[in-house]
Amino acid sequence: MGTMLRGLGINTRQLRNGLRELPAFLRDYWHLRDSLKELGDEFPLAKWNPCLTDRSDCNGVASGHYFHQDLWIARQIFLNQPEKHVDVGSRVDGFVAHVAVFRNIEVLDIRPQESTVANIHFKQADITSTDFTLTDYCDSLSCLHAIEHFGLGRYGDPIDAKGHLRGLANIHRCLKQGGTLYLSTPIGPQRIEFNAHRVFSIRYLLDWFAPLFDLKAFSFVDDAGKLHTDIELTPELISDNCGCHYGCGIFELVKK
After folding, report:
1. What is the average pLDDT across 204-230?
2. Which of 24, 52, 67, 95 holds its CA 20 to 30 A away from the CA of 82?
3. pLDDT (0 to 100) of residue 199
4. Alpha helices for 81-190 (secondary structure H)
């Protein structure tokens, strides 16, 4: 039920915490109103704009899939200094922005981009399309937390059970031989949680990579949101998906 409510835009946790903090909000409001009498009309009270949960929150979230993958891969690109880097479907307000601080980055996404930002060069494209024409186009490519959505219709893309495979094939085609692919996606027991995402088993991904890419490095974010870097994938870790139910696998791959 909670998942369905969140899908409708109702954050049950935020609602519960907000109701808990409502008495403190009202108390502070009356206190401020009395205190403002000392200033006369300098700061008139306007409409309410309640921020009810910040009192109990920490100063920010430095954990989780997006926080760790965005910083980790942006750092790798900074260190490796590719000639041309292309991104497919990653967050513009996260990873792409990090990279745009220090270099040009070309972004491909099925959705339009309304803003124009320095160092970010946008092309609207469907990476799963049979009409995708970019071949041997770049020596470095990222696709972070995106392939799990291909073919599920969430972002207006056509429903296609093989959407992730078509997207990965076009990503492979886009990269030059010897080029580097930075790929992240949910890992755990393999499943589809419609229409949010797929979750891939590590074994499934490695089997798909094997004829096309060499695995250079693997890191992951566990279910608690902690980053584990440069992991040697043993058969036990592979079969257990590194102990993840909904983790994030971060793969650095080199095109054969």
Report:
1. 98
2. 67
3. 98
4. 97-100, 163-174
> For 241-256, what is each residue's pLDDT tens digit?
999 999 999 999 999 9
182 closest CA partner among 221, 217, 223? 217
In Å, how far are 162, 200, 221 from 191, measured between CA atoms? 14, 7, 18
Q: Which CATH number fits domain 65-255: 3.20.20.10, 3.40.50.150, 3.40.50.300, 3.20.20.70?
A: 3.40.50.150
Domain ranges of the chain: 2-56, 65-255
Whether residue 161 contacts residue 144, with contact meaning beta carbons closer than 8 Å, is answered with no
**CB distance 188 to 201 below 8 Å:** yes
Closest to 118 in 3D by CA, of 136, 138, 92: 92
pLDDT band per the 50, 70, 90 thresholds, residue 122: very high
pLDDT-based confidence at residue 2 (cuts at 50, 70, 90): low
Q: How far apart (Å, rounded) are the C-alpha atoms in residues 96 and 104? A: 10
Q: Which two tokens stand for residue 10?
A: 């109702």
Q: What is the pLDDT of residue 214?
A: 98
User: What are the counts of helices (DSSP H) followed by strands (DSSP E) for the chain?
Assistant: 7, 10
Strand-pair category, 120-124 with 213-221: unpaired
Model-level pTM? 0.87
- Token readout for 6 is 């969140």
From CA 209, how far away is CA 188, in angstroms rounded? 17
Q: Using the predicted structure, report yes or no on whether residue 1 has a pLDDT greater than 70.
A: no
